[in-house]
Design goal:
732 residues; Beta-galactosidase, Chain A, domain 5; 8-stranded parallel β-barrel; 13 helices; 20% helix; 30% strand; globular; binds alpha-D-galactopyranose
């Protein structure tokens, strides 16, 4: 059993293959967090807690005689607000008498032999290979009728523990939830670094590593999306942690809207780490019998550095979060017309692109923004999800059929959550947009946001999108979101429910996605938000691939894809070969390099194939052959980061499960005169097998390759790349 319960049902050990997470409900019913780390035998570790009379840390009513007992110092699972723990809390309540206190004590527990599901939101699900086990702990508020259920699922083999919270008002009077974070980790001892993934539009997910001290480290989003700026994932690790060494704890929030994530030491040097919905502009009213579900956090622990942690996340997200036909089915190589044509296209242009693409082996044409309503630039038309047949010169059905006749699939872009003021939809339903009466709204990309919390808005979108997907032969949908939310006001939840709108908005998005995927289960969905502005675990539940960044520059992509790889599987990373000079950076890189970088992701093209040279066309064919040859490695293999950003070259590697085949990609990021050698390390091989290396034909044992590495005979020029294979051979 992965979940062990002892001490009259008060001591809980959650055991995974290599880790243990322990909680203990003490004599006052405070749920202590006594351990998380390397696997242990599960004895009660309450004894590790050092108790002392700490000045200005008060004592709860039960322990007035014992001044060494203070909520302000104890490691807890559900630190609550207003009753003596002065650190950052998980939960905050406003009662109808105006008081703001929350004091949750242990009531009981329940075990279920499968993983739990968070209502209305994505969460990890059980598959045939592994089923989670769940512990549900009930905590009751000491002076009201508010009950919290803490959900923990253990995926033993994967070294993953999830946690979520349900808050239920069982009392007569209304309670307002002012804050409800999903997870708290308290570390009594040790020094830690916090790694977060930060950036901006076209520069997403750069790792930033800081030492946790008493000054709070905090990231978050208030954009209504998980955001380009801060990803809802972070790693707590020992300061000596590297790719292959050290204790690393991952926290990954399964949520696509406002979040907070922080780490801070308290007055005694204990570290508290929290993650969940951002409490800023959040409040949720709970009337009698109502409950609130906070999103899941996926926790994982690695005793052997960051690489192992990434492997655990890749496996769990690929196997227990991504769903549907394309979770395992081979993804088609696509050509997206965005950077090829932008808004300037018609049927002839698209078919000519399609013909050229089909000839080169590309398997799908994706028609991006501009095919609907009045939409020749980004100032109008959003919301009018009717094909603009005049512009296209045909119906979508006819166009789709023509593309299918070329032997290709056909994909279409949507941005359902948005509305242009210059649209028929806005003229008919101005109240469907989020905007505060009496104020001019903030516009971004000259568009407003639809109120996705409203059933009628979702019904309209469901009907429009279903109509299009039901009539035209569409195999793929790119689901975009091109602005951050602001001016939050919903006509449906006006007044004292305004604090619910951000959350209800994202629940509405999830609901619409779920309904559409239920109706069109064979559609391959690609998530997008101006590239990687909504690249999070929750979106992977709907879209097994997400456009990683609007930045298609192969060299910039090295860093973006590197940062993305800490949590998210490589198969989820949308990556395309685009034209040079690159449209975002102006840089020129070799065609071959662009292909090699894009191969480490869900692969495609985003350029005008009619404008490339014959040599480049040949390279497209070669790249597609490489895509097929390496598909199982890049989409299901084990991934290794080999170099940190900022080196002379960037290298990474994939190894198949049997360890018979490895592929390394190496890209020179700078050039120098009289160059020093390029020596690269090799990881993940089996020590006792023999491998032949494709670039020098040498055969060595895996032990030798991993110990000694490889020196390239030639130093590649700036921005050139090489693919290096290791194939197992019978013997030396
Ligand atoms: C976003 C996407 C792009 C493209 C445009 C269309 O920026 O990330 O790939 O679809 O929108 O407007």
């Amino acid at each position: 059993m992965a979940i062990q319960v002892e001490k009259d049902g008060r001591l809980f050990n959650l055991q995974t293959a290599d880790s243990t997470y322990q909680m203990y409900a003490d004599e006052y019913g405070v749920l202590l967090h006594t351990y998380y780390g390397k696997k242990i035998d599960g004895e009660n570790l309450e004894e590790l807690i050092f108790r002392a009379d700490v000045g200005f840390s008060g004592n709860p009513p039960e322990s007035v005689a014992d001044r060494t007992y203070s909520l302000d110092c104890l490691p807890q699972e559900l630190p609550s607000d207003g009753v003596g723990d002065y650190r950052e809390s998980c939960i905050s309540l406003l009662h109808d008498d105006g008081s703001m206190a929350a004091d949750f004590r242990f009531e009981g527990y329940e075990l279920i032999p499968c993983s739990y599901k968070v209502e209305g939101m994505p969460s990890l699900y059980d598959n045939e290979e592994e089923r989670g086990e769940t512990l549900i702990i009930t905590m009751k508020e000491s002076a009201s009728q508010v009950v919290v259920r803490l959900f923990y699922s253990v995926f033993e083999k994967e070294n993953v523990i999830t946690r979520a919270i349900r808050v239920e008002n069982q009392g007569e009077s209304e309670v307002v939830l002012m804050k409800c974070l999903s997870c708290c980790l308290d570390y009594q001892f040790g020094e830690y670094d916090l790694i977060t993934f930060v950036g901006r539009h076209t520069v997403e997910r750069s790792p930033e590593r800081n030492r946790v001290r008493r000054t709070k480290l905090e990231i978050g989003s208030m954009r209504g999306t998980s955001s380009h700026q801060y990803n809802p994932s972070m790693i707590v690790c020992t300061p000596d942690a590297t790719e292959d060494f050290g204790d690393c704890y991952g926290l990954c929030l399964v949520y696509s809207s406002n979040f907070t994530a922080c780490a801070q030491k308290d007055q005694r040097g204990q570290t508290r780490v929290l993650m969940g919905i951002n409490p800023n502009k959040f409040s949720f009213r709970l009337r009698k019998g109502e409950f609130f579900d906070a999103p899941q956090v996926i926790l994982s622990y690695s005793d052997a550095g960051l690489t192992k942690l990434s492997h655990q996340y890749h496996k769990i997200l690929r196997g227990h979060m991504c769903r549907g036909k394309y979770q395992h089915a081979k993804r088609p190589v696509l050509l997206n017309n965005w950077e090829a044509t932008y808004f300037d296209f018609n049927k002839e242009k698209l078919i000519s692109l399609g013909e050229q693409a089909a000839e080169l082996g590309i398997e799908m044409l994706v028609l991006d923004d501009g095919w609907f309503g009045k939409r020749d630039d980004d100032n109008s038309g959003l919301g009018d999800w009717f094909a603009n047949e005049k512009k296209l010169g045909s119906s979508l059905e006819e166009l789709g059929n023509r593309i299918h006749d070329l032997g290709m699939k056909f994909g279409l872009w949507f941005e359902p959550e948005m509305i242009s003021e210059d649209s028929d939809l806005y003229r008919a339903h101005p109240d469907w947009a989020l905007r505060i009466p009496g104020r001019e709204p903030n516009r971004a990309r000259n568009q407003l946001v639809l109120d996705m919390s409203r059933d009628d808005v979702r019904e309209y979108l469901f009907e429009r999108i279903s109509d299009i997907l039901g009539h035209a032969p569409i195999d793929y949908v790119k689901w975009d979101v091109n602005r951050s939310l602001s001016d939050i006001y919903s006509h449906k939840y006006a007044g004292n429910q305004n604090g619910e709108v951000y959350h209800r908005f994202i629940l509405g998005v999830y609901d619409l996605l779920e309904r559409l995927l239920e109706k069109f289960p064979d559609i391959l969905l690609e998530g997008c938000s101006g590239g990687g502005g909504r690249f999070d675990a929750a979106m992977l539940y709907y879209s097994p691939q997400i456009w990683c960044s609007d930045n298609t520059d192969a060299v910039n992509r090295l860093d973006i894809q590197y940062g993305t790889s800490f949590f998210y599987p490589i198969s989820s990373v949308g990556a395309h070969v685009s034209a040079v000079p690159n449209h975002q950076t102006g840089r020129t890189t070799p065609f071959r390099t662009r292909g090699h970088v894009a191969l480490s992701g869900s692969f495609g093209y985003e350029l005008d194939l009619n404008k490339i040279s014959e040599d480049e066309k040949e390279m497209v064919k070669e790249q597609i052959a490489e895509f097929h040859r390496y598909y199982s490695l890049t989409h299901e293999g084990t991934y290794y980061r080999l170099t940190p950003p900022g080196e002379r070259f960037c290298a990474w590697e994939f190894v198949d499960e049997e360890k018979n085949h490895a592929l390394q990609t190496l890209v020179m990021t700078s050039a120098e005169g009289n160059p020093l050698p390029v020596h690269t390390i090799v990881k993940g091989l089996s020590p006792d097998k023999y491998y032949c290396c494709s670039v020098n034909g040498q055969v060595h044992s895996g032990r030798t390759w991993m110990g000694a590495g490889l020196t390239l005979r030639m130093v590649p020029k700036e921005y050139e790349s090489v693919l290096i294979e290791w194939n197992v051979v019978e013997e030396r």
